[in-house]
Amino acid sequence: QVQLVESGGGLVQAGGSLRLSCAASGNIFSINSMGWFRQAPGKQRELVASITSGGSTNYADSVKGRFTISRDNAKNTLYLQMNSLKPEDTAVYYCNAIIVAGALFDYWGQGTQVTVSS
After folding, report:
1. Tens digit of pLDDT for each residue in 55-80?
2. pLDDT band at 29 (very low <50, low <70, confident <90, very high)
3. CB of 7 closer than 8 Å to CB of 111
4. CA–CA distance from 88 to each of 38, 113, 115 (Å)?
5. Residue 29: phi, psi to the nearest 5?
6. Which has the minimum average pLDDT: 9-23, 58-72, 95-109?
7. Is 75 buried (19+), middle (13-18) or exposed (0-12) by CB count in 10 A?
8. Is residue 24 helix, strand or coil?
């Protein structure tokens, strides 16, 4: 079992920045990859960025060059630095962790709201 708690969301003007954090606890040593997803009203949840245990990263085209995913293994925390925010970035952002151990185990945080005003 893995528990994930997000923080850092809020209201920001277009062009501003926010940093999201995701504190992980539990069976963290078995985590293969972690990521950030987002879901805007009326839309499907989509991948924003992910990072593997080896440090390889992947970004959605819509956030490349603006968002940076990182992890602090000493603090068991995942981050998403979001710069040059746009109104279309408004969504609930979710932290995700995947463990592959015979089967795939998927864990989610409760989500944190990010609202970007124009």
Report:
1. 999 999 999 999 999 999 889 999 99
2. confident
3. no
4. 11, 13, 9
5. -70, -15
6. 95-109
7. exposed
8. strand
